Amino acid sequence: MTDPRAIRLLLVEDDPGDQLLIRQVIESSTVPVQCVTVSDGGEALDYLSGSIGSDDTRPDLVLLDLNLPRISGWEVLRRIRKDDALCELPVVILSTSSWARDVRGAYRLGANSYVSKPVTFEEFERLGQLLCDYWFALALLPSGG
Predict the structure, then answer these.
(1) How far, CA to CA in Å, does 87 sit from each of 69, 101, 122?
(2) The pLDDT of residue 1
């Protein structure tokens, strides 16, 4: 049974190692988080389209990698922002790229935040705690979460 107060997070990440690290850090947060993980952009869009009519499955926040198989994170972000039912959904880009061109492009498409993936486990822990503190404890989310 899931905690009804839990923040619902959709993690869109194709690297199994990064999935594991991010989930471990997020789930160790003092804020209850229900994390669903998908491995490519197509799965993300399928999940989101199935959650449109259901407040039980719609995520409160999306952590989105840009370089994904099938459908890129760029296209996922583009489609989220064009969908009236999803356009307010907060999306945080979590990418290995720190190129200014990618950062600007993501913000132009409507990303709420852009974060470069850490290299070490300690940096992942720190990033996870900062993300949890800000998005799950401080920020007001459109879903009311």
Answers:
(1) 23, 23, 33
(2) 43
Query: pTM, whole model, 2 decimals?
Result: 0.91
- As beta bridge partners, residue 116 has 95
- 36-75 pLDDT, tens per residue? 999 999 999 999 998 665 667 789 999 999 999 999 999 9
Length, in residues, of the chain = 145
Q: Which domains does the chain have, with CATH numbers?
A: 7-138 (3.40.50.2300)
Q: Of 20, 43, 23, which Cα lies nearest the Cα of 35?
A: 23
Secondary structure element (H or E) that encloses residue 27, with its range = helix 16-27
Neighbours of 55 (CB within 10 A): 9
Bridging pattern class, strands 61-64 and 7-12: parallel
Residue 54 to residues 59, 79, 91, 128, 141, Cα–Cα distance (Å): 10, 19, 19, 27, 17
